[in-house]
Amino acid sequence: MPAEPTPPAAPRRPHRLDAHGDVREDDWYWLADREDPAVIEYLEAENAYTDAVLAPTAALQERLFEEIKARVVETDVSSPSRLGGWWYWTRTDEGSQYRSYWRRADPDHLLDAAVVLAGATDALADAKATPGAGQLVLDENALAEGHDFFALGVWDLSPDHTLLAYAADTDGSERYRLRFRDLGTGRDLPDVVEDVSYGSAWARDSATFFYVRLDEAMRPFQVWRHTLGTDPAGDTLVHQEDDERFFLSVELTRSERFVVVHLESKMTSEARWIDAARPDADPVVVLPRRQGVEYDVEHAVVAGAGDVWLVRTNDNGATDFALGSLPVGSQDPAQLRILVPHRPGTKLDGVDAFAGHVVLSERAGGLEQLRVLPLTGAEHASGEVFGPDHLIEQPDPVYSLGGGANGEWDTSNFRYGYTSLVTPMSSIDYDVTTRARTVVKVQPVRGYRAEEYRTERIWATAPDGTRIPISLVAPKDQPLDGSAPCLLYGYGSYEITIDPAFSPTRVNLLERGFTFAIAHIRGGGEMGRSWYEQGRLEHKSNTFTDFIACAEHLVATGWTSPDRLVARGGSAGGLLMGAVTNLRPDLWRAVVAEVPFVDVVTTMSDTSLPLTVTEWEEWGNPLEDPAAYQAMKSYSPYDNVVAGAYPALYVTGGLNDPRVGYWEPAKWVAKLRAARTDGGLTLLRTEMGAGHQGASGRYDVWRDEARVQAFILTSVDITQ
Questions:
Q1: Do 375 and 302 meet the contact criterion of CB atoms below 8 Å apart?
Q2: Could you confirm whether 586 is annotated as catalytic?
Q3: How many helices (DSSP H) and strands (DSSP E) are in the chain?
Q4: Residue 584's Cα: distance from chain center in Å?
Q5: pLDDT, tens only, 550-561
Q6: Catalytic residue among 226, 239, 357, 692, which?
Q7: Which of 156, 296, 657, 704 is catalytic?
Q8: Model-level pTM?
Q9: Where are the alpha helices (DSSP H) in 258-329?
């Protein structure tokens, strides 16, 4: 028999860290130096070890990959969306890693989404012979040629639809190169702007473009203005945000009337505007920032009042946010008129304004909902701005509403996505006037039969008595005797919600008897702003004990048992994985931690690292606050590894990751392997040419997922 693979052993190089009279010894601190050849050698050795350990699962991995391929329609088109006399959609082709972007002219609005979709679908067979084939706008596959990684960070059409601004990243660093394409000729203009970030806006002249730049800490902090045909070296700095807590972004309003600069920390925000017809003007503050007050704005036009900002704000105790209106040009908070008051328990998440109506994205009882408010055209100062509102009804009790492309300003149509744990994504067109609901396209999933599965929402009880929702999907005949395997997923940070949505790759596990469950733990936004507040800063431990409570409830109610239970999470969810592994190593058969944020104290104490200062309002400042330091140290996964038995672990990292340094998972794995006494698996796989999101091509993503699934399946003794 071949010898068992031998895991790498990263040498110990003791490093002393002092803070607030406390000393930590970090034997693997040296792994953060990517210029040290020994670091790359170690990461490559870990990759080789992981490959060797998983080599016996090669046939299973290939089977899982082929099942994903067979289930996904590889040559397909997305739902077309109308914008400015054109229909736009994306297309994927069998054998291609990335998407291409297409459009079809419709200046007289004679077509609807179904007709355009039919033409684009027919064109898959013969683009030259099909009238609805459309015009190729951009092909990601051509741009990605010769690169192991590719991602678009900017995709922005000029108001006259003659130009496309796009920005590409080819190494996962999230620093992009901005180009401009002439859509008449299909050729790129000579203008090239290096080192840009997410966020962009065109002025109304379709010749002036606003973009964002990062500082050395990967913080978006500047808006620049470029005029086509000029040297980018002469571009104008429009605004620089010097407060290191704040991120900056820029966008054009749906009305194309204003360019808005958004400035946000974790607890405070501010917006500034520029008339899109006067792009050389200085940005004007909407409402001056005040610590702890958050707001964002949407432009609307109200008859008798003209241009107003619809302001979503938490001011004056509106914990779950209220909606007000403010005349454009006013900076007086006293002129903010509340239109939709604060409703405790109903979180106002977003506002979409159109020429004749507004759609509110809300969350109540842990579920998303869409509320339509028609604009009445009344006087701003006297009459009601909105007519009678209504909710867009949804067919299932547990679901998720995905975003839709709603670029048109003067329309009665609202596009949104609908999915659940058993329902593939559907693109829905909703007429806000007639209330007609039209399904434009349903995500095709070959061989999948929804009737074979059941989905439920159940509730666990946290140690402090709080009820924690769990969404799950399982085979319909799943016995509740503890015999079934279960994958429990969690995140629980930044007020990000993990809603119940369908995944075609997840069907691989469901077909093999798995239950898949999502723990909607505190620190996320599933149950409103208070849900987030109860899982951050000094309350962060609630995130971890909530997840453990969900796992214990699944075991107690017979959905699974500890020797059949696998936990999975990534990034801040990887911190969750590390914390619950330390707290309850006996509760999990295996743990998958992807790009995990596990070295919390050291990272949050190093202001030279990307994003550290901006993160202090989420986690605390361990440099200046001894209590924050001790709180972090109490749960930081890396600092709480002790000798003992641990579940099998599969850990990932990205060498070019600007969000979670590759060394965090690398150090954690090295320390775990040195500490564990049970001889169990601790695997590390680092993407050597990618960043936080891992592989970028869809086939590469599927192969990575097949590898993870093979680890999950074999950890619970499923090898078929």
A1: yes
A2: no
A3: 13, 39
A4: 28
A5: 999 999 999 999
A6: 692
A7: 657
A8: 0.93
A9: none
> Could you tell me which of 414, 335, 409, 336 has the C-alpha nearest to residue 371?
414
Residue % of the chain over a pLDDT of 70: 97
Measured in whole angstroms, how far is the alpha carbon of residue 469 from the centre of its chain? 21
Active site residue 563: no
Kindly name the residue from 79, 96, 571, 715 that is annotated as catalytic.
Answer: 571
For residue 480, the tally of other CB atoms under 10 A from its CB is 12
Angle at the Cα of 638 (from 636 to 642), degrees rounded to 5? 105
Q: Please give the angle made by the CA atoms of 271, 277 and 279, to the nearest 5 degrees.
A: 60
Give dist(CA 68, CA 504) in Å, integer: 7
Active site residue 160: no
Structure-token match 């054109």, residue found: 86
What tokens appear for 25 in the block?
Answer: 């010894």
Per-residue pLDDT of 419-432, as tens digits, reads 999 999 999 999 99
Q: Taking the CB of residue 676, how many other CB atoms lie within 10 A of it? A: 20
Helix (H) or strand (E) holding 677: none
Return the structure tokens found at 529. 């702003």
Mean pLDDT, the chain, as a whole number? 94
Using the structure block, give the residue that is written with the tokens 């930044």: 494
Model pLDDT, residue 694: 67
Distance, CA of 467 to CA of 365 (rounded, Å): 12
* Burial of residue 350, with CB atoms counted within 10 A of its CB: 0-12 exposed, 13-18 middle, 19 or more buried: middle
Q: How confident is the model at residue 381 (pLDDT cuts 50, 70, 90)?
A: very low
> pLDDT, tens digit, for every residue of 574-591?
999 999 999 999 999 999
Token readout for 719 is 């090898």
Q: Is 311:286 a contact under the CB 8 Å cutoff?
A: yes
Say how many Å lie between the first and final Cα of the chain, rounded.
22
Residue 383: per-residue pLDDT: 60
Confidence of residue 125 (pLDDT cuts 50, 70, 90): confident
